[in-house]
């Protein structure tokens, strides 16, 4: 335990099971992101600040420390998205930052309930949705796919890896503590998780860019993690926590490797590695995804009805859905539907892919009491083979996965559809009933100029981060009454 009582309101770091499992994953994710050349100073600065914030949040021993470093990640990650000044990139950055700040306020409410020693289902749900903007939970999921698509490769790898790992660490470490009795949240977590898993896969199949598909795949996979969390909350949390961590490690390594592969020079080795990584996301037998699913299914057997029947019936279907969305990704990646930018060294990608495929096996051998029985039993092999085979069969039969979808949905789905009507409504709402006089117009222009100057200054990442931390310190002082 490392304690810094004189910093902010006291920061504490510890190496519990969650930190021991996910901190190396976050470090590897940042190394993978740094393997991509940075196109500008702003991106390099944002990378280092977000890296410090994410590592501090993963190692946080209490919710206050997690909140401080999670807030640093929130601000710095904006710089990971806006790699250029195009209209679509600015929109992706704006929608991310808006929803991330909404999540920050929700997380602050959870922190205040925690400091007031009022654990319960409300505090638990506030924590879930407080990290939901980075996990991609509905309706906050609309920020994830645009960030994957529009961010430079380094930023997209960071979003797919260490930033997602940061949110997963907060969920898995603090949910039992802040919810009091996690079993009360279990039905809602399972329902929301399964809905998110299928919705993310369905929305991803309608995308036309490979990285946007990966963004919706992360939404789907985080829905699956939420459903697994519900299963653990309903049963023996400590017994299933290693399975949840195995799933988090698996996704935290495989998904940034897939994003990195989209920027690697094409070749047979790169294509083969992408296929293996995609099959791991689909939970093919003997992959990390299959290991975690089979382990959690042991907890599903202990659920009461109707949850046992519902989850047992839908879990194989999630593998079918994941196979379909990965087939869509592989087709788009082969067709070159990726944004231009600096290329990643193929050797770096192959190294990251190898680590992502091997590490879950190492952890399973260390954590599970009978890994061979879990992975090699004929019933378990069949249970993790047939959903992927069925998904591959459907993908080969449905030609829509190999061409432009008939119903096109841009990354961001609901946010894109509602953006223009909301802008028109705000324009009508703010329209003055009559033209102002010339002196009033001059005064208004001076005010606009001051606002514009302040906005330009706030674009400086360091100034924004310092202002945010000062505001955070004031709020926490008021909350604790010190």
In short:
By secondary structure, this protein is mainly alpha-helical.
Overall geometric form: globular
Strand order of the largest sheet: 1-2
Q: Find the count of extended strands (DSSP E, 2+ residues).
A: 2
Strand content: under 5%
Enumerate how many helices there are, as a single number.
21
The overall pLDDT, averaged over residues, is: 83
- Radius of gyration (CA) equals 23 Å
Helix content: over 70%
Structural class call reads mainly alpha
Please give the largest β-sheet: 2 strands, antiparallel
The sequence of SSEs as H and E is EEHHHHHHHHHHHHHHHHHHHHH
Task: State the end-to-end distance.
Answer: 24 Å
Uncertain regions spanning at least 5 consecutive residues: 429-433
Structural write-up:
The protein is mainly alpha-helical. Helices cover 75% and strands 1% of the residues. The protein has 21 helices and two strands. Strands 1-2 form a two-stranded antiparallel ribbon. A hairpin with a 6-residue loop joins strand 1 (2-4) and strand 2. The protein starts with a strand and ends with a helix.
């Amino acid at each position: 335990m490392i304690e810094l009582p004189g910093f902010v309101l006291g920061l504490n770091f510890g190496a519990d099971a969650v930190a021991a499992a996910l901190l190396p994953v976050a470090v590897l994710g940042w190394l993978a992101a740094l393997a991509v050349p940075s196109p500008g100073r702003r991106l390099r600065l944002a990378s280092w600040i977000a890296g410090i914030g994410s590592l501090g949040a993963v190692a946080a021993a209490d919710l206050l420390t997690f909140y401080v470093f999670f807030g640093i990640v929130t601000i710095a990650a904006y710089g990971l998205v806006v790699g250029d000044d195009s209209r679509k990139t600015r929109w992706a950055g704006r929608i991310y930052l808006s929803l991330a700040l909404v999540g920050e306020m929700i997380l602050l409410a959870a922190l205040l309930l925690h400091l007031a020693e009022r654990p319960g289902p409300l505090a638990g749900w506030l924590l879930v949705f407080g990290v939901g903007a980075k996990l991609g939970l509905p309706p906050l999921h609309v920020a994830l796919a645009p960030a994957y698509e529009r961010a430079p490769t380094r930023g997209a790898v960071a979003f797919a890896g260490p930033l997602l790992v940061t949110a997963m660490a907060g969920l898995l470490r603090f949910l039992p503590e802040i919810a009091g009795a996690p079993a009360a949240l279990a039905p809602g977590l399972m329902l929301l998780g399964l809905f998110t898993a299928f919705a993310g896969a369905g929305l991803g199949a309608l995308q036309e860019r490979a990285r946007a598909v990966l963004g919706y795949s992360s939404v789907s996979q985080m829905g699956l993690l939420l459903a697994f969390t519900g299963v653990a909350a309903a049963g023996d949390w400590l017994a299933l926590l290693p399975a949840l961590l195995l799933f988090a490690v698996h996704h935290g390594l495989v998904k940034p490797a897939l994003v990195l592969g989209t920027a690697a020079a094409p070749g047979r080795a790169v294509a083969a590695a992408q296929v293996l990584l995609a099959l791991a996301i689909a939970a093919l037998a003997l992959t990390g995804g299959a290991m975690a699913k089979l382990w959690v299914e042991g907890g599903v057997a202990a659920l009461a009805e109707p949850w046992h029947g519902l989850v047992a019936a839908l879990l194989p279907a999630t593998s079918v859905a994941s196979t379909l969305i990965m087939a869509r990704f592989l087709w788009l990646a082969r067709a070159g539907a990726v944004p231009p930018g600096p290329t990643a060294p193929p050797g770096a990608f192959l190294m990251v892919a190898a680590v992502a495929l091997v590490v879950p096996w190492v952890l399973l051998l260390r954590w599970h009491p009978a890994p061979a029985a879990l992975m090699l039993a004929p019933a378990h092999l069949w249970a993790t083979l047939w959903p992927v085979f069925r998904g591959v069969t459907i993908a080969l039969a449905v030609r829509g996965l190999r061409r432009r979808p008939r119903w096109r949905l841009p990354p961001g789905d609901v946010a894109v559809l509602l953006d223009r009507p909301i802008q028109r409504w705000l324009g009508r709402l703010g329209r003055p009933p009559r033209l102002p006089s010339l002196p009033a117009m001059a005064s208004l222009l001076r005010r606009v100029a001051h606002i514009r100057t302040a906005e330009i200054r706030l674009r400086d990442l360091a100034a924004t981060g310092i202002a945010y931390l000062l505001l955070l310190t004031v709020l926490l002082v008021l909350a604790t009454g010190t």
